[in-house]
Amino acid sequence: MWILIRDAITYACMLILMSIGLTLTYITTKVPNFAHGEIAIIGLYTAFSVLHLLHLTPYAAIPIAFVLGAGAALALYKLVLKPLSARGATIDHLMIATLGYDMIIFAILNVYAETLRELYPRFTGKPLKTRGFMPFKAHDFTLAGQPGVFFTSLATVLICTLALHLLLTKTRFGIAMRATIENPDLASVFGVNTELVYTVSWILAGGLAGLAGVFLSFYFRGDTCLGFVLIVPVFTASIVGGFYSIYGAILGGAIAGLSEYLITYAISLAVGPWFLGYRITIPLIMLAITLLLAPEGLTGIEWSKVLRQLRAKLAGLSSRAVARLAGVVGR
Predict the structure, then answer these.
(1) What topology does CATH give the domain 2-300?
(2) Rounded distance, CA 47 to CA 22, Å?
(3) How confident is the model at residue 188, as a pLDDT?
């Protein structure tokens, strides 16, 4: 049971890192980035390259993956989204543009994987599988009998959460970012460099996706199309927590990651292991339920109002129950 919970926590940490970035760019530039999953795969292939070309631990790829992921996200914003916005593109146009950018990254990764597969044997005399390769569990370290990716992913989430909290609440840039999120036009009138806020947001989002990609290499079979699979649970995490809150992204990532992993395992025990191939249905169902019942996400719900309504209903039920009981006794 502990192994199941441990792996679920590890997966949830990866979703949290990705959902933070997705939410950060959405609340600043109001663009849902459908290329976010494929940006994470840049981090995965960075870890793959560091392992097989430099013969170093995949963890050595963390700073490189952050830079490459940040660069890919920044290029999307500066070269695609910003010029389109200047020409009057709507959110629908920008969203479709991120899908196109996703395809570009996918194509580049496929070209890289194929080139590496062709050239690697010429220099080493050994074949190299560049698609569908096994997770790097054999190259992970252990601590107290537990895989290193469990501790490193959890520590990364905690550090990033604390750093973002301090950034948003204790720095002038954080104040400027919050002002830009609330009202970019008014913030610019008061001298806030909104363009800098947007740029930093996309850099952080891409960098966090790159970090998540490194951790994914220990967990998933590596493939260029993995980003298409990941984008569903990442969007689910952001929407469940609340697409307008960084803290909601953290909460949603934890809920979506743990639920997807544990519910999939429970159903597979009941109906058979064939259901493991359909685990994507769990976040899809969670996404649909959230959009139907609480489209603002958990952090968008007025919980005090919900509690007051619940108390009122409970009080009404208890009053009716007492009245019925009194009527029975009176007879």
Answers:
(1) ABC transporter involved in vitamin B12 uptake, BtuC (1.10.3470)
(2) 22
(3) 87
Of the candidates 157, 295, 303, which has an alpha carbon nearest to the alpha carbon of residue 239?
A: 295
Burial (0-12, 13-18, 19+ Cβ within 10 Å), 104: middle
81 in Cβ contact with 195 (< 8 Å): no
CA distance 285 to 18: 20
CA distances from 97 to 22, 27, 34, 277 (A): 16, 18, 9, 30
Question: Which one, of 177, 179, 183, lies nearest residue 199 by Cα?
Answer: 177
Contact between 252 and 238 (Cβ < 8 Å): yes
Give 94-102 contacts, CB < 8 A, sequence gap 24+: 94/31, 95/31, 95/32, 95/34, 98/31, 98/32, 98/33, 98/34, 98/35, 99/34, 99/35, 101/35, 101/76, 102/34, 102/35, 102/37, 102/38, 102/227
Find residue 133's DSSP bridge partners.
Answer: 222
The model's pLDDT over 276-303, given as tens digits with 9 standing for 90+, comes to: 888 889 999 999 999 998 888 888 887 7
The DSSP H or E segment spanning 37 is: helix 36-53
Residue 127 Cα distances to 52, 120, 122, 124, angstroms? 11, 7, 9, 8
Q: Is the dihedral of CA 131, 135, 138, 142 positive or negative?
A: positive
Tokens 């994507």 appear where? 280
Cα 77 to Cα 56: distance, rounded to the nearest angstrom: 32
Q: Where are the domains of the chain?
A: 2-300, 303-331
In this prediction, residue 331 has a pLDDT band, given cuts at 50, 70 and 90, of low
Q: What is the pLDDT of residue 314?
A: 81
- Read off the DSSP letter of residue 142: E
- E strand or H helix at 36: helix 36-53
- d(CA 152, CA 129) in angstroms, rounded, equals 26
